[in-house]
Amino acid sequence: MLTIEGPPSHSPYRLNQLLSELQNIDSTITLIGARYIHFIDNSKDFTDRDYDVLNPLLSYGPDWDLGATKGDKIIVIPRIGTTSPWSSKATDIAHGCGLSNINRIERGLIYTLVGLTDDEHLRTRCVAALFDRMTQQAITQFDQLDRMFDIDQPQSFTTISILSEGIKALEAANIQLGLALNNQEMNYLLEQFKILERDPTDAELMMFAQANSEHCRHKVFNAEWAIDGQPEQFSLFDMIKHTHQSNSEGVLSAYTDNAAVMSGGQGHWFMPSTSDQSYSFVEDNIHTMMKVETHNHPTAISPYPGAATGSGGEIRDEAATGRGGVPKAGLTGFAVSHLRIPGYIQPWERSIGKPDRIASALEIMTEGPIGGASFNNEFGRPNILGFFRTFEFSENQSASNSWGYHKPIMIVGGLGNISESSVNKLDTVKDSLIIVLGGPSMLIGLGGGSASSLNAGVSNEDLDFASVQRDNAELERRAQEVINRCFSLTLDTEYKGENPILLIHDVGAGGLSNAVPEIIDHSKMSADLELRKIFNAEPGLSPLEIWCNEAQERYVLCIDPKHLDLFDEICQRERCPYAVIGKVNNHGYLKMNDSHFDNLPIDMPMEVLFGNPPKTQLSISRESMSMLDDSMKGISIREACERILRFPTVADKTFLIHIGDRTVGGLVSQDQFVGPWQVPVSDVGVTLKDHYSKKGEAMAMGERTPVATINPPASGRLAVAEAVTNILSAPVNEISDIKFSANWMSSIKTDSQKQALFDTVQAVTLDFCSKIGLTIPVGKDSLSMQTTWSEENLEKEITAPLSLIISAFAPIDNVTRTITPQLKVSNNSLLILIDLGQGKNRLGGSCLAQVYSRSLGEPADVENPFCLKDFFNAVTELKSLDKIMAYHDRSDGGLFVTLSEMAFAGNMGINIDLKTASKEESLSLLFTEEAGAVIQINSSDLKLVMETLKKYSLDQSAVVIGEITPSKQIIIKTNHADAEIFDLRALREMWSELSFRMQSLRDNPESAKEAFNNLLDDDDPGSSSKITFSQPNKEDLMKFKDQRPKVAVLREQGVNSHVEMAVAFHRAGFEAVDVHMTDIISGRIGLDDFKGLVACGGFSYGDVLGAGGGWAKSILFNPYVRNMFEDFFKRPDTFTLGVCNGCQMLSHLRDIIPGADHWPRFVKNLSEQFEARLSLVEVTKSPSLFLKGMEGSILPIATSHGEGRVEYYHNDDHNQLNRHNQVIVRYVDNYGQPANQYPSNPNGSIDGVAGFCSEDGRVTIIMPHPERVIRSVQHSWSSSDWDDNGPWLKIFHNAREWID
After folding, report:
1. Euclidean distance between CA atoms 840 and 865, whole angstroms
2. List of E strands, 627-695
3. Could you tell me the CA-to-CA distances from 1013 to 106, 1007, 1016 in Å, in that order?
4. Can you tell me the distance from the alpha carbon of 873 to that of 878, in angstroms, rounded to the nearest whole number?
5. Do 261 and 251 touch, CB atoms closer than 8 A?
6. Lowest-confidence range among 70-79, 1158-1167, 1196-1205?
7. C-alpha closest to that of 800 among 809, 811, 812, 788
8. Could you tell me which residues come within 8 angstroms of residue 386 by beta carbon, excluding any fewer than 6 positions away?
């Protein structure tokens, strides 16, 4: 084994942060250092030429200081016996660079601690703070590294002696293996194996436990209920299905697949052909998938990987719908207990403590959102919607019991598109091949299905950690490309082929032991499998561990044997691993052979696995719920307003949003941010159906979980109402067009909790949704939302309230008709409150109740579903008449928050006139969370608006509540006291301080402070554009339609922005051709026939060996490929563009690009965070052919990168580039000045530089994404005078003009 020390691993800020954390454990530590270290398993000694390749290969990252280098060494490495995702990608790059004698490269960290104590207890705690026990281990001696590349010997299965020991053997295995089997199931297994006359294997028991877990079988939702001795007519699932029976129109798939599918209609895919990889628009019936999942238990144990793999798992659910779908846009939500931020603990943040085994709420919200966002970013799915709630409340100030989210909600979902040809899975026949597509087995996530079915605190702690997974988004991207190519074969009119995938299933809970049986059972078939055909990164795993682990990024699919060669060709091109693990049979058994031991770890009848264990019976007695009212005595309006704005549920969520890419794919029209000041208050996320039209899809969320502590059915109805009032921001035609995903979370430990679940399901389905045409075709339940532990001889328990999260989805005809909360400048406008609470103004469970830790009586409710339908119809009619200028729903925080957020978005003041007679009446009106909305209208339209509302019986529920004012104040007038006057800047400071505090803890605190100060600039004019050129019109673009020079749309594994790039060049008059690096390396495609080359954005090789570095080095150290690129760059008739990851890659090729000698490299952002924003850039004077005639323009552009900070190789490089006008664009602030502060400068580059060109202008590199915003509808804010074409289409048109 060869060891090579690597670059610094931590920035100075991160080192200081880590030093402070360690000093809190051991105050004697004075200094710390950290760097990477590489371990190389090589088959023979390296030559000098090998080192000439290897040393630059392992040189990457920013030029940070190493910190201390002498002191106690702690080496953190991947768990011995495992292969990290970093390793597999780095090894691939090394092989591509000709280092064939490398078996594997692995990476670790060396920490140097100066002054570490000799106290063993403190040393152990310090070491534990330096690594993640899930995936890593720490060692203190270099000689302990000898086992780094050890390969353990395979293990065989074990049997459980139930024939001789009976039920006791099963009970022992149930505990030892963490199976979570109930008594009925254990008796069922005992009976079945007695019939089979043999003992079960551990693999068989684990498989049965996963397949029959609450997580997979939803036993409670399918149970037979009896309440007060009377049997209920419907199960919970029956009631949910009733909504579909009442309105199935537009639903193509419900309850039978990984995601639901609703009708979408005609659209256009943009995809490459099979014959020549040339992109074109292909007409098809394109439908919409929708799915929302939870990953609560793993996120509680280990927040980053728990949330990351939750995101990855839900993406796979969409991809594995029918015969393969395409995920498009995501949503994410979190509910946790009180944050208790150090130095910012709020008066209401009381807690009874937590067990050590789970992460704190603050840890979850620091690490979890980054995990989820990182997976989405790397995979290439924009996240455009979400929610965040904190809740913890102890009734009667109990020291041992409390409501709360110690077991958090981590919810992830989204929508995608699917071809009509792929909606339905096909049946398999005998000898169909069973294939595992994606990554290898690893000992992670074992028993997750069972673990998530247990209340936190019930299972063994080691089993808790074993049930958490590890993410590899780049590999999942590769698998998605395979799925995309397979379904496109059906639509390729020249190829006239068919999708080789008959049906596909994701690998999630239970691993292969759940996915393979389910795919076989689809056609009521059986199978013969070979265990050792399964890719396995850890040879020492037992059959149980290979079969049941939940290693991520995998699918199981069936294909016809005649399509294997075609499927292999597709996978080879995408470098996506796959394995044929067996064949479908009809003998009735699931048989899995182990060729290593020549035995059968699994030989189970399918009817036993999917048989009929006794159906769950639930019998409960009704209990009445008490309702307290502590009164509002002592609460002032001013203090209440200030507390509410600081409450995390209400406060600015920017810290959760800018970490996630919201433009990748080029199909997002509305994300969380609205208006020129980009305030995150949008009610709805909106996507474009395709790159061709203005049709699209909308999605929104609704939840009001604290209300469930008082009135669970009311909380469910409010969730539905909020989802509807939110999605109504988009132009949804009919309320019946809206389809729901319902996520039900609760504890069912007591009768009262079961009663709350039953009553809420009934209230939401039979009594509400079914009556007004709202359908719930998909959902998820998680019924172990409880945390128990012992502390100082006191048994403690935190229980989550019944939590219904509604996610709403709907098709829309024109995305430009979406209305936002941004107030519009108008001399004569009014604000109208439409109150679905009909003046009751109830406060129970509200944010006001929470910030004062009080019970305030009855909660808000929507008792009449038809009132909600009337509201929908009235607002829809007013929108169709163009009578609504701004719209915002009323929900958390009540009217005061609704109006404040509208004021923030419009950057203007509001005069509010409550006309109330008492303080209590004012507080109730300001802070009730009854459903409804505020609309801004022209005062001249008041009569028509009120007549329209009267038409729908809402005139008595509508009242003029205020008007806008140019003074930046919110003034609250009443009839009982002097007006309360708030400075808008002061309110914004309160509202945004939470994001500032969280960013200061998580990111670079200096950047966080700059962002916070920027928000408080009273004079900020907001984003604007300055266009100095004539934009190409339809005639300009049409003249090139018949003569299309070829441009190579180049991608490497992990690139995710190639389709929108191809669209941009296609619209400008090019023939865009999909070119994978495997095409280049294999010689299938050369560059001689291309006039243009574009390197696209994404995460090539997962940004291993530096962003774009691995991709570049696979070119530089492959002589054949290097010569091809070098020849192309030298040709005077060619151009090259690199965007984001492509920009980073091309910057590493500067030695072979004429005139690029002084180009920099791009390293980690100064904020130390991925940054996704709609930024402003100024086009500077340069010879770039792309930017000809655009000098002086200031334009909004999509920024999405984590490593965009410029770092020059030589001190004079910056001056040289300026001298030769090779800087093409730079970030500017809202005043149009060069941006040197965050977030106008999102990465910290000096002078805001964001792109460069070669001296002759033929090669251009740029970090932000012009290709994602070539249409006005792709901007979350755009100037009202733009037409359909956005200004960035000009650069692609310039390239086409240059060719001629």
Report:
1. 17
2. 668-670, 673-674, 679-680, 685-688
3. 42, 10, 5
4. 9
5. yes
6. 70-79
7. 788
8. 331, 332, 333, 334, 653, 656, 657, 672, 701
CA–centroid distance for 568 within its chain: 30
- For the segment 1229-1280, what is each residue's pLDDT rounded down to a tens digit? 999 999 999 999 999 999 999 999 999 999 999 999 999 999 999 999 999 8
Please calculate the CA angle 1203-577-368 and round it to the nearest 5 degrees.
40
- Beta strand 679-680 with 260-262 is unpaired
Active site residues: 1140, 1265, 1267
Q: In Å, how far are 210, 529, 581 from 600, measured between CA atoms?
A: 19, 10, 14
Read out DSSP for 495-524?
T----SEEEEEE--TTTHHHHHHHHHHTTT
Q: Which of 859, 829, 1039 is nearest to 942 (CA)?
A: 829
Cβ-based burial of 342 (10 A; exposed 0-12, middle 13-18, buried ≥19): exposed
pLDDT on residue 458: 45
Q: What percent of the chain shows pLDDT beyond 70?
A: 98
CB neighbour burial string for 102-132, b if at least 16 within 10 angstroms, e if fewer: bebbbbbbbbbbbbbbeeeebbeebbebbbe
Which helix (DSSP H) or strand (DSSP E) does residue 926 occupy? Answer: helix 919-927
Please tell me the distance from the alpha carbon of residue 1076 to that of residue 658, in angstroms, as a whole number.
30
- The DSSP 8-state label assigned to residue 263 in this structure reads -
> Do 982 and 969 meet the contact criterion of CB atoms below 8 Å apart?
yes
Reported pTM = 0.96
999-1026, pLDDT tens digit by residue? 999 999 999 999 999 999 999 999 999 9
Cα separation of 474 and 680, whole Å? 29
3-state secondary structure 857-891: CCECCCCCHHHHHHHHHHHHHHHHCCCCCEEEECC
User: For the sheet containing 136-139, what is the strand order?
Assistant: 2-8, 31-42, 102-114, 72-78, 136-139
**Does residue 459 register a pLDDT over 50?**
no
What phi, psi does 206 have (nearest 5°)? Answer: -65, -40
Residues in the chain: 1300
What is the residue type of 82? T
Contacts of 58 (CB under 8 A, 6+ apart): 4, 6, 38, 1105
pLDDT band at 462 (very low <50, low <70, confident <90, very high): low
Q: In what order do the strands lie in the sheet with 526-530?
A: 501-506, 554-559, 433-438, 578-585, 526-530, 589-594, 599-605
3-state secondary structure of 457: coil
